Structures are given as structure tokens and as C-alpha cells.
Amino acid sequence: MVLRYVAEEKSIAEISENDKRIRIIGIVVDVGNDYIVVDDGTGKIEVSVSEFHGKMGDMIKVIGRVLASNGKITIMCECYQLLKNFNLKLYKEAREIVKKVMKYV
């Protein structure tokens, strides 16, 4: 049996080299041969992908492992989901409400 770390939901600004596995949502702002760059409004991060079937400007959810090398943090993508008709502003507002509520739980 293979155990995995939970993919913790984070903003890009919150990602640290101590994180193991994360989940982010943002907009694709650059596409290369084996990577994409995602921007969530708090920062940008390079995501290694074996193949990508989207385009710049797409909203995307990424789950992956955090890699740190020479002070640079990147994500090795395990899977991604293109998000159509996704309201990022509403999502961020709901996420902030959940954070506030979780302080009391």
C-alpha cells in the first residue's frame, strides 16, 4: 500500500520548501514544452507537466509535489483540471471565510 501526503490547499504565496504535496488554483500565464506557469494573484509558480492540453489564460487546478532547488520552488504536477466557468473571486472569498471559521473549530 502506498501512502500519500494530503494535497493541502494553498495560495502560491503560502507555499514553502517544507510543503510536500499541495493543491493550487490559478490562471495559466505561460506554456513551455514541459512546464506551465500559474498565477493565482498572490504569486506565480512554475509547474512541471509531462503534457498539457490547455492554453494561456485557462483557469486550472493543480495537484502536485513541491520541489525546492537552489532557493527556487516549483511544483511537479501529479494531475491538473481545467476549470470552465469558474468564479475565482467567489472562490477566494469563500476560502477566506472558511479560514476564519476554522480558527474557532
Keywords:
105 residues, mainly beta, 5-stranded mixed barrel, 1 helix
In short:
The chain is mostly beta strands and 105 residues long.
Describe the structure.
By secondary structure, the protein is mostly beta strands. The protein has one domain: Nucleic acid-binding proteins (OB fold (Dihydrolipoamide Acetyltransferase, E2P), Beta Barrel). It is 14% helix and 44% strand. The chain is built from one helix and six strands; from the N terminus they run ββββββα. The protein has a five-stranded mixed barrel. The chain starts with 7 loop residues before the first strand and ends with a helix.
Q: How many domains in all?
A: 1
CATH superfamily: Nucleic acid-binding proteins
* Count, helices: 1
The fraction of residues in strands falls at: 35-45%
Question: Percentage of helical residues?
Answer: 10-25%
Main sheet summary: 5 strands, mixed, barrel
Q: Strand order, main sheet: write it out.
A: 2-3-4-6-5
Stated plainly, the CATH topology is called OB fold (Dihydrolipoamide Acetyltransferase, E2P)
Global outline:
globular
Number of β-strand runs:
6
Please state the second-level CATH architecture: Beta Barrel
**Alpha-beta content class:** mainly beta
